[in-house]
Amino acid sequence: MSDHVHHDIRLMSVSGRQPDAALQVLAPIYDGAGWNCRPTDDPFWFRYVAIGDEQMSVRRLQMHGHLRGTASTGSDVVVHWLERGRARVQTARDITRLQPGAPPSMLPREGRFQFEYEDWDQRLIHLSKDLLLEVAAEENVVGTASAFDRRATPEVAARAQWQRSLGHAVDTFRVHGAESPDWAAACREVARALLVLHPSSGERLLDRRSAQDDRIRAALDFVLNHAREAITVDDIADAASLSVRGVQEAFKREFQRTPMEYVRQTRLDRAHTELQSLVPGPGAVAEVARRAGFRHMGRFSAAYQERFDEYPRETLRNPAS
Fold first, then answer.
1. In whole angstroms, what is the distance from residue 312 CA to residue 253 CA?
2. What is the pTM of this model?
3. Residue from 266, 304, 263, 260 nearest 286 by CA
4. What is the pLDDT of residue 94?
5. 90: CB partners within 8 A, 6+ apart
6. What is the DSSP secondary-structure string of 240-283?
7. Which residue, among 245, 244, 247, has the nearest Cα to 212 in the 3D structure?
């Protein structure tokens, strides 16, 4: 097998039989430094495949060989596990040794980490921080005061939910592609499953190292608890003890949207969830819109169609299975 690379925005496939080829292709993906790749015995080979987009990607890395160095996941949240081989991941605080059959775990997100892998088959799920943070807020995870044991073993039911969500996402990608609303919904389903698999992941997205972070949490809590009310940017700023400009900059930095865009998105997502579970009936859409915090049906329908690519009445007629 000769060294081979095929990739585009939605698919990447790399394979080869030379350690130098593995370094050249793989190191840039994980911001690699000081990488050393060598055979363990003949023949050396590697294969790397990824599908998805910037919101979520499903990846598989296989190598018959030895690889070590330092890496970073950037802003992505990366869940991984081994199907075969052995591995070690080390940060300044701890060392994690990976074995096949162990539950999925999360790669370090705080800066660079050292790693060493040998003769392995690894699965990696990359989720964007923005997506996970958005879903965590919808599930009321961000802003909670609970402390979680990051080394706790995920429950069997949580692992099953995680695997189901991944299987559904891969099938959705193959059938509908990454541009479809089905793929976007599947990505959110995986994000929700991760919050069950590793409850601390939502909490970890916002560091508690500064007062600024606590104020952002206060702003999120206020939005989640009062989204259906006629709140303003001034109300959010007051709840977070920030200036209006401060809260606007914080939301733009953390969520790439204005505070009121975030409020509207929260209202729309809640309406969408409720419409999926309702039995169609006279006035149902208007009642859902009112409960979500919308006062103008025309604006609600237009915003809903823009976000979910269908009108509220269509969701009501075609509830999620």
1. 31
2. 0.61
3. 304
4. 77
5. 96, 113, 114, 115
6. HT--HHHHHHHHHHHHSS-HHHHHHHHHHHHHHHHHHHSPP-TT
7. 247
